[in-house]
Sequence to fold (244 residues):
Amino acid sequence: MNKLQEDACLCRIIHTDRVEKARRAALETREHQRLTNIFKAMGDPTRLRILFALSQEEMCVCDLAAFLDITESAVSHQLRMLRQLYLVANRRQGPVLYYRLTDEHISRLIAIGLEHLRDLNP
Amino acid sequence: MNKLQEDACLCRIIHTDRVEKARRAALETREHQRLTNIFKAMGDPTRLRILFALSQEEMCVCDLAAFLDITESAVSHQLRMLRQLYLVANRRQGPVLYYRLTDEHISRLIAIGLEHLRDLNP
DNA sequence: TTAGTATATGAGCATATACTCACATGCAAG
DNA sequence: CTTGCATGTGAGTATATGCTCATATACTAA
Fold:
């Protein structure tokens, strides 16, 4: 049976409709990429701490460096990525750049993630 | 000035209160780790597509492999990670394991991420 | 039990990435 | 203009990770 040679798994033949349905509903490529980048950005310990700190109050680079106990260079690298994804924005006051979250979606994402954790027993 | 030798950045002295406030408000370590892992899991193109597909309908491993056009082994590896983080759960029906999202938080995270994207012009 | 199907897992490799270091840029006050 | 502080950036390195391949496990049907 040629069909089985190509697709050893019977499931793939029987349930093709589910696959087709998923394909029709799938995210457009560009949107998928951008969404992946947002979660990837939030999926790093350092960046998540930055975002969580900024969800409380705006901070400058050296504030964040002191808070995270890493170099200002490392902070700046991460902020650059977060800026490019429009997760954070800044305003200048004299020589200092104060960073904040771009909008409330980010803190909502963090809040829902925490809800998920707390709704689990272990 | 010794203070300046330690911390060249004046900002760090002036704005210490912001750093202290951030430290008090910071997430507990274990919670921070688990939250990071959730976003890291969602921040991979393959896993995000899996989660998005499962947000529409439950699917088995070979469904997902066909949908994503990757090997069932690769899917299984990713599902293992998602299972360990309690992002997905499964039920057995005969020899087939059907996977679904553990709860609605996950699809809400995806929805809010998309909202964030769509609220941006570019 | 045995054979067959669906899924899981361990090892290994190729790539991605987070940090450090050195240096560049930008702004503000003289 | 020059000086000094705050931040940005490029290159290099050490680690993390997503896939493939081979094999193992779990369940069903006979």
Q: What stands out?
A: DSSP finds eight helices and three strands in chain A.
